[in-house]
Amino acid sequence: MDLKVVFLVVSLMTLAIISTDAYIPKCCIKTRDISFWKLRKAERWEFQSSAEVCDIDAVLLYIKGQKKPTCAHPKYKKLLEKLKLKRGTTTSL
Question: What is the CATH number for 86?
C-alpha cells in the first residue's frame, strides 16, 4: 500500500475518534464510607449504575476543593436527597 494512503487512513481514523466523543468512561472501582461533613461539602453528585457501562453502583460526589470525584457507597443517595442536594447541579448549603 502506498505510504500516502496509509497516512490518510490513519489521519481520518484519528479525526473520527476525536470528533465523535469516543471516550473510555471513568467508573468507580470501589466505594467507601463518607463522613457527614464531606457529604455536606459536596457541590453536586451523580449516580453510577451497574446496569450501564460500569460494574458497580456508586454515588460520585464532587466535593469542593477536590479535583476528582469521590466514590461513595450507594446508601448515601437517600441521605443526599434528604439534604436537598440536587443531582448534577451546584447548590450551596
Answer: 2.40.50.40
